[in-house]
Amino acid sequence: MTSNRQWILKRRPEAALRDEDLELKTAVLPASLERRQVLLKTLYVHLAPTTRNWMNPRRENDRNSLYPETKVGEPVKGPAISEVVASSHPDYPIGSRWFNVEGWQEFALINPDDATHPLGRIAEAADVIQCLSVLGPNGLAAYFGVEKIGKPQAGETVIVSGAAGSTGSVAAQIAKLKGCKVIGIAGGSAKCAWLTRELGLDAAIDYKSERVESRLRQLAPAGVDFFFDNVGGEILSAVVENMAVRGRIALCGQIATYNDGGRTVAPLNVMHLVYWRVKIEGFIMSDWWHEIEEARSKINEWILQGKIKHREDVRHGFERIPTAFADLFSGANTGTLLVKMDS
Amino acid sequence: MTSNRQWILKRRPEAALRDEDLELKTAVLPASLERRQVLLKTLYVHLAPTTRNWMNPRRENDRNSLYPETKVGEPVKGPAISEVVASSHPDYPIGSRWFNVEGWQEFALINPDDATHPLGRIAEAADVIQCLSVLGPNGLAAYFGVEKIGKPQAGETVIVSGAAGSTGSVAAQIAKLKGCKVIGIAGGSAKCAWLTRELGLDAAIDYKSERVESRLRQLAPAGVDFFFDNVGGEILSAVVENMAVRGRIALCGQIATYNDGGRTVAPLNVMHLVYWRVKIEGFIMSDWWHEIEEARSKINEWILQGKIKHREDVRHGFERIPTAFADLFSGANTGTLLVKMDS
Predict the structure, then answer these.
(1) How far is CA A223 from the centre of its chain?
(2) Do A60 and A187 have their domain in common?
């Protein structure tokens, strides 16, 4: 192994990531490692919506370094699981597997001591795919968003947007486990059917063919107690209109806005938030870093009991990453979108 | 007294309240009272921005009756202080004064037992003007928004919009009392000068002549820890961009949006709320009904100690109500806007 194919960010995307923003380059790997260096071979790349956000320029006064930035000229950063294939670092033995954000490249040569984002060891017995999906950042975000922000009680009405997605499907099922009435919002009849028939949700709204605001009014006449939002934009706007008194909104993601720098331009009824005393809270799962193992074992227990179902959409081949990434934004993927490396 | 002039809502305003939406009518008062009826003579009307919201049609599924609705054909509802001039109710003696929402009319004939919004007795020794301003709903909203929602700590940076207004000026001063760095946003250099010179705020931004977002970035380079928002719209949008990690936003009012049914159309960087884990919370002061007396005595203590300054803009004459009300939305008032009845 001497060459390393990389998807390089050639320029900052202005809206959706386009082919012209990327360049496929082949870098040469060094013949030997420096002290405490590790060569990671990418096994799976997780195509997460937030990867698009990481391509935006960091603001001048940004002191919030919790998420990585992909700079122009660098390989696109994004969640991945990789295996150590060469190592001069005692804590990173050959064959060990690590969650990392080195992203869209076949190999990554790093010094883990200098990594701004700590690598997470994957247990030997673990299922790599699950570690990037239902037991990975997305499943954990679902868990913490429901348990720490929404705290829905039995009998309450819970709405999840992006409900057929990697995070949303787990959030919706956890809310069901708590005895809530759960309504999912997803794009297309196939996804909606999966939500109600396979996951047991009480109802699903197809935002591509139904008017979310009026449909919600029918399905949740007493208002929405907790909204787990992955989408934002017009869907956030529609759910805000339907929030119940003292409703809570957990902001997990805003995929509808990522191509506009995170800004929603849909009119938001903020005064409804005042009169109805609604609370909106943004969160990221790494805020509960010390509780991750506990959360993971809880989710795993639910999976083994058949109470949480999950699905992954695994594509194959390094060169297909950009095409697969575009599917995330059109909703053409079903479940966690992963790309398995060729060899 | 046999006649009662009333400003009647002739039709629902579509945007800003216009002359054509109102009609000045003279109703005839009955010669005698029914059992448990009370005749209230209006002393002062408080022109509160929310009066505009109360003119909107109540939504079908609205089970949140905490605020009154002005129906077409009825006198405009709004906060007022009135004196009992005739009574057949033992709890409402002649000469007693009451806070009520009977609004824009010279007299109100009511049965207090049936009132959807309870009347609040004004102590005999109390200053009626203060009871509608700094010790009234606006001062109390300022108090609870700071104490219960924002809970700013000494050294934190606090932003208040509508800072020269009835609620904002009190909120800003309470935050100063807590040792915060406080920046007010107001319209015009006179109001800004009042904030910094009279109230001792650390800085003021004139939204009419300065760009709020970039000015805030200069004045609060470490970000905003707590934002007390009375305005919404583009100002909310600009402050959201500048929120610090774990910042809190208390939504008290959204005057910029009232003429659009409470909906803000300014692009909101919701993703910033996610990455920075910002919390937004709507509130209304009546949620702390049982703590109102304690809050009022605390504010009163600060007033007596010279730590909280307040000012009222008192207009005269019943027929001037609509013109004065328009001043609220253009910012032409200074402090709590009241109309004193002619006699």
Answers:
(1) 27
(2) no
Number of domains in chain A: 2
Both B92 and B174 in a single domain? no
Q: For CA atoms A144, A149, A152, A157, give the dihedral sign.
A: negative
- Name the residue range of residue A224's domain: 137-286
CA distance A305 to A324: 32
Distance CA A224, CA B278 (A): 21
A 10 A CB-CB count for A186 gives: 29
* Chain B residues within 8 Å of chain A (Cβ atoms): 53, 60-61, 63-64, 66-67, 217, 221-223, 232, 236, 245, 251-254, 257-258, 260-265, 267-284, 287
List all residues 6 or more positions away from A310 whose beta carbon is below 8 Å from its beta carbon: A130, A133, A134, A139, A169, A170, A303, A335, A336
> Are residues A225 and A88 located together in one domain of the fold?
no
Assess if residue B293 is contained within a domain: no
B20-44 pLDDT, tens digit each: 999 999 999 998 999 999 999 999 9
CA proximity to B162, closest of B333, B340, B47:
B333
- Residue B194: what are its φ and ψ, rounded to 5°? -60, -40
A339: enclosing H helix or E strand: strand A336-340
Chain A residue at shortest CA distance from B49: A271
Mean pLDDT is lowest, of A78-92, B254-268, B283-297, B319-333, for: B254-268
Q: Does A64 contact B276 at a Cβ distance shorter than 8 Å? A: yes
ipTM (interface predicted TM): 0.91
DSSP three-state, residue B176:
helix
Sequence-distant (≥ 6) Cβ neighbours of residue B258 within 8 angstroms: A271, B49, B50, B52, B53, B329
